[in-house]
Specification:
Elements: H1 2-16, E1 18-20, E2 33-36, H2 40-49, E3 57-60, H3 70-73, E4 90-91, E5 104-105, H4 127-137, H5 144-153, E6 155-157, E7 181-183, H6 191-204, E8 221-224, E9 229-230, E10 233-234, H7 237-241, H8 244-247, E11 252-255, E12 259-265, E13 273-279, E14 289-292, E15 296-299, H9 302-312, E16 315-316, H10 318-323, E17 330-331, E18 343-351, H11 367-380, E19 393-397, E20 420-426, E21 430-437, E22 445-447, E23 458-460, H12 467-484, E24 493-496, H13 506-516, E25 518-519, E26 551-553, H14 568-585
Parallel strand pairs: 1-11, 2-3, 2-15, 3-11, 6-7, 15-26, 16-17
Antiparallel strand pairs: 4-5, 8-19, 9-10, 12-13, 13-14, 18-21, 18-24, 18-25, 19-20, 20-21, 22-23
Length: about 600
């Protein structure tokens, strides 16, 4: 069945709409909007702008189509995608805060962007995250209350694929029901772990108190995980916003496997950017093509490639680009600065659960069992591969107030925002917390070291370069020790898994964190918003490039601060509002 479907899907672009892989095939029309990047934000914009029949929209995406790709469809195969054609395959610079380790930095490369390859966790963050956006940009329409229509507009909450009773697992009042992105709760529950997680929340309360729905704007506590999936399949920006019906719109054109190398300044007076330079070739000597938008170029290449393209276009710090032989076109020193990322680390405890109810068993270990699970998914879109894995609950918590003082301010957006996250899952023998600092104080950069746009960006997330992040990470590990010391775990807990030890010192934990942490792949901030009259920042609150016209930036790079959340939900929210900002600017809203 799947090979037959795959053949149909491969042929689909010829019948579903205007999908191109070479610019020579593009129609001879004037494009009102050219969207650079068909990722999470770009897909939203492509959909919403082509709702206006008179808008001709071109999307240029560096990667391939998502249609019919098995690993992108099956939630359980999320870990198969790294180092594939759907990953930019980036690495970082040596990380000072990680003992100079170079770490991988996966980003989506293809339609849907990182929403096609990520872990699918759906978390919006806290209301104060968005209120801080509004406060820092002096624009109240970026506040949590003002964004509520867009919070619901993008989402369609969907029952879990196993059909279990979801009472007391989420709050339907805070979810959308008619949006393009399917969200859902865990399926194939593991009662031997779930029961202990919920009992711990009840026994300890405080930092770990049960939270009916972490996506209400107040995420603190222990709650059920939610994910961007539905009916047994991943729900990405591509599957949701670029469906067959959307691709069939005559005013939408998608150019795949094509790299935008620069955005060019228009000739004449003023500073306008409405022309893109691109190539379908694979290197710096490849022939370049240019196209000009009648209204706007919208740069939605993500927090890594957006500054990369800007800098190669001569938009950035004048001295930096000039030293590389790039003509400085617009001096904006904030381009590529303020990279903010969540450091991630895993903490494991040994268990001895005799009443094991783990529904996955050997699915990801024994090839025979894996093949059986694939056959079941092919037949029913059900079974263990229809869900993202063993993670059923997440804890969001804050460190003690005594952590901060006049010289060490709280980096979170407010008292209802988490400092750290613990995604806790387990088997009969192990309890694993995928932990992250979600209100980090450290900052990094995205930069370039040549004038060749095919050279990879220099990604320096600066993980643990601010000692406060280490302090908060140590506290999160000690909080996990308190969590597993609850009566609920007394009969099954053995102790921490080596190299972790009981009662670790600060020095031990610092070494542990620096030697084992990675990036949680939630980069933001490299083209940040600021007030319209501010001398810092890259875009104004309407997302137009400062000191210029014709170019708008819409993706997670515009965030002044990273939300205390996995970032895909916030990108949907921000992009939905941004689409209305663009429509209003051109008198069609």
């Amino acid at each position: 069945m799947l090979p037959f479907l795959a053949c149909l899907l491969w042929l689909a672009p010829a019948t579903l709409g205007a999908i191109y892989r070479r610019s020579e095939g593009l129609p001879d029309v004037t494009f009102d909007f050219i969207i650079v990047g068909g990722g999470t934000a770009g897909s939203v914009l492509a959909n919403r702008l082509t709702e206006i029949p008179q808008f001709q929209v071109l999307v240029i995406e560096a990667g391939p189509d998502n249609e019919g790709v098995f690993d992108l469809m099956v939630p359980g195969f999320v870990f198969n995608i790294a180092n594939s054609a759907f990953d930019w395959n980036f690495t970082t610079t040596p990380q000072k805060g990680l003992n100079d380790r170079i770490i991988t930095f996966e980003r989506g490369h293809g339609l849907g962007g990182s929403s096609s390859v990520n872990g699918m966790i759906y978390t919006r963050g806290s209301s104060s995250d968005y209120d801080r956006f509004a406060r820092v940009t002096a624009e109240p329409t970026w506040s949590w209350d003002a964004l509520q229509p867009y919070v619901r507009k993008h989402e369609s909450f969907t029952p879990p694929v196993d059909g279990h009773n979801t009472a007391n697992e989420f709050d339907p009042r805070v979810h959308g029901t008619n949006g393009p992105i399917l969200t859902t709760l865990p399926a194939l529950l593991n009662p031997s772990i779930d029961s202990r997680m919920l009992a711990t929340a009840n026994q300890l309360k405080g930092d770990f108190v049960f939270n009916l729905d972490m996506n209400s704007g107040t995420p603190l506590g222990t709650g059920w995980q939610q994910a961007t999936a539905g009916h047994g399949e991943r729900s990405s920006a591509a599957t949701g916003y670029l469906s067959a019906a959307v691709r069939a719109r005559p005013n939408l054109h998608i150019l795949l496997e094509t790299r935008v190398t620069r955005i060019l300044k228009s000739s004449g007076p003023g500073t306008a950017f409405r022309t893109v330079e691109f190539t379908s070739g694979a290197g710096p000597s490849s022939p370049r093509t240019t196209l000009t938008a009648a209204k706007e170029v919208i740069l939605s290449a993500g927090s890594i490639m957006t500054p990369h393209i800007l800098l190669h276009s001569g938009i950035g710090d004048k001295q930096t680009v000039s030293k590389l032989g790039i003509d400085s076109v617009l001096d904006l020193p904030s381009v590529g600065m303020n990279l903010t990322e969540h450091p991630f680390f895993a903490v494991t405890f040994d268990l001895n659960i005799t009443d094991d109810t783990d529904p996955w068993g050997e699915v990801f270990i024994d090839p025979t069992v894996t093949n059986e699970a694939i056959a079941l998914w092919n037949a029913t879109q059900g079974g263990p591969l229809a869900t993202i894995g063993r993670l059923d609950q997440i804890v969001w918590a804050r460190v003690p107030p005594s952590t901060f003082n006049d010289n060490v301010p709280d980096p979170s957006s407010g008292s209802n925002s988490a400092h750290y996250e613990m995604g806790i899952s387990g088997t009969a023998t192990s309890l694993i917390s995928g932990s992250s600092i979600v209100s980090p104080a450290s900052r990094g950069t995205v930069s370039i070291n040549s004038s060749n746009p095919f050279d990879p960006p220099l990604i320096d997330p600066g993980l643990f370069t601010n000692e406060l992040d280490l302090t908060m990470a140590r506290e999160s590990i000690r909080a996990l020790f308190r969590f597993v010391a609850a009566p609920a775990w007394k009969d099954v807990l053995i102790g921490p898994t080596a190299p972790l030890v009981n009662n670790p010192t600060d020095e031990f934990l610092n070494d542990f964190l620096r030697n084992t942490s990675f990036a949680n792949l939630h980069p933001t901030g490299t083209a940040m918003m600021s007030p319209a009259n501010a001398q810092w920042g890259v875009v104004n609150p309407d997302l137009l490039l400062k000191k210029a016209s014709g170019l708008r930036i819409i993706d997670a790079s515009v965030y002044p601060f990273v939300p205390c959340a996995h970032t895909q939900a916030s990108v949907y929210i921000i992009s939905e509002r941004a689409a209305d900002v663009v429509k209003a600017a051109w008198g069609v809203l």
